[in-house]
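[Discussion] Sanity-checking designs against the backbone

I'm trying to build intuition for which residues belong where. Below is a structure token string of 167 positions. I'd appreciate it if someone posts a full sequence so I can compare it with mine line by line.
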């Protein structure tokens, strides 16, 4: 099914902005709203941050996007919505990667007590260090085994992005 068919099947009108946003997230999963806006601008789609947030909300509500919210990071969006998968998040740079379900069927974890809920999904976030940050940390080790690598990133910025001042 192509993007236009997905939009129509979900009950949404096909617009240039929605089509471009879905195509962008197909190629760049786990992007935050600002990254989506920059990507749309780079592709020639002049749009506001508010418009991007509105499209993300509409597409998420229609089931075409999944919103994930790693701790200390802006919400991220992805197109992988048809399964119950999890995520690994780098503590240093905020990179996010998909991790397939531990058992293979939803919810893929059995709680000790459901508190009366009918559980249909488990949302697990694995935290650690991504390969690029691990390599950078190894490369930064000094002869006396002291590391000059900076502490963990908490702003969710991608590799190579300048550090933002703490709020």
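Best answer:
Here's mine. Compare freely.
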């Amino acid at each position: 099914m192509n993007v236009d068919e997905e939009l129509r099947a979900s009950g949404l009108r096909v617009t240039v902005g929605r089509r471009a946003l879905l195509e962008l997230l197909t190629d760049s999963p786990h992007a935050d709203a600002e990254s989506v806006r920059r990507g749309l601008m780079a592709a020639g789609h002049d749009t506001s941050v508010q418009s991007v947030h509105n499209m993300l909300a509409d597409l998420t509500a229609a089931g075409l996007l999944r919103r994930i919210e790693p701790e200390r990071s802006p919400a991220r969006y992805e197109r992988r919505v048809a399964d119950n998968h999890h995520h690994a998040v780098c503590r240093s740079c905020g990179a996010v990667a998909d991790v397939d379900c531990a058992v293979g069927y939803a919810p893929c974890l059995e709680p000790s007590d459901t508190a009366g809920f009918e559980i249909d999904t488990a949302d697990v976030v694995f935290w650690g260090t991504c390969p690029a940050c691990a390599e950078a940390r190894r490369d930064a080790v000094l002869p006396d085994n002291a590391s000059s690598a900076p502490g963990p990133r908490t702003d969710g910025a991608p590799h190579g992005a300048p550090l933002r001042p703490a709020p």
